[in-house]
Amino acid sequence: MDTKPDADPSKMLLLEQYKIFVKMADRNSERRGLTNKFISRS
Question: How far apart are CA 34 and CA 27, in angstroms?
Fold first, then answer.
């Protein structure tokens, strides 16, 4: 990530938290998809 010297640290922190949130939501969706595949095969 490209950080500017004049960037607000609190905004940078919020951006990092948002990135983590998106990554975790994506993983959760992937897990649900795998679970649904497994259950539908049974």
Answer: 11
At position 27, the amino acid (one-letter code) is R
**Buried b vs exposed e over 29-39: b needs ≥16 C-beta within 10 Å?**
eeeeeeeeeee
Tens of pLDDT along 2-41? 556 567 999 999 999 999 999 999 999 999 999 999 899 8
Could you give the 3-state DSSP secondary structure of residue 12? helix
Amino acid code (one letter) for 9: P
Answer for the pair 11, 20: CB distance below 8 angstroms, yes or no: no
Instruction: Report d(CA 39, CA 22) in Å as an integer.
Output: 26
Predicted local confidence at residue 7, as pLDDT: 78
